[in-house]
Write a structure and sequence with these properties.
two-stranded antiparallel sheet; alpha/beta; 8 strands; 5 helices
Length: 191
């Protein structure tokens, strides 16, 4: 992933486990757009077990501890989700549920978050945007305000696993600019 020269560290999370995932290709495209302005590391949520409150204590699964540490040490999070049946994937919802604990005081609280959705269909995952807004509002994250980043007909905008559509790259770039401004605002408030 992008190794920018900036001290801004971002965490990328794809809501798809598929090897040739459109959501993952779009997330990697976001990393390319960052250039030297920030570094982004992607976290594989495929090893996170289903949420079980009995396991949510001092002996959390290692994959959950790693996810929480990755979110905590990042300056912001970029989520790229496919749309499944008008919503986000179960694996992404599960990861957010784990990261959201303890309620109202999790590693996501106050964390700048930019999310994008994609679909082979005509609306680009727009219906899943509602779920993401609700989830990240519940976690008290700092959701980046701006046009919803949706990638319709995703299969036409990706070639050899890379995002190649110029208009989509420009659109995502605007969202990234907003995320970096939000991170700067958080840093300014903390200093």
């Amino acid at each position: 992933m992008n190794k920018g020269t900036s001290d801004i560290q971002l965490l990328g999370i794809s809501g798809s486990l598929r090897r040739a995932s459109f959501a993952t290709a779009i997330l990697h495209g976001a990393g390319d757009i960052l250039g030297a302005r920030a570094s982004m590391t992607c976290f594989d949520i495929g090893q996170i077990p289903l949420y079980n409150q009995d396991m949510d204590g001092d002996n959390k699964p290692e994959s959950v501890v790693a996810l929480k540490q990755a979110i905590e040490s990042s300056d912001g999070v970029i989520v790229s989700s496919p749309e499944y049946n008008y919503g986000i994937s179960g694996v992404l919802k599960n990861a957010i549920d784990w990261a959201s604990r303890p309620g109202f005081n999790s590693v996501l609280k106050g964390k700048p978050v930019l999310y994008m959705t994609s679909s082979p269909g005509a609306v680009g995952g727009a219906r899943a945007q509602v779920h993401l807004l609700e989830l990240f509002s519940a976690t008290m994250s700092r959701v980046v305000v701006g046009p919803h980043i949706t990638v319709a007909a995703a299969q036409t905008k990706i070639k050899d696993g890379r995002l190649v559509d110029a208009a989509t790259i420009e659109f995502i770039g605007g969202g990234i600019d907003s995320l970096l401004r939000e991170i700067a605002a958080v840093r300014a408030a903390q200093s």
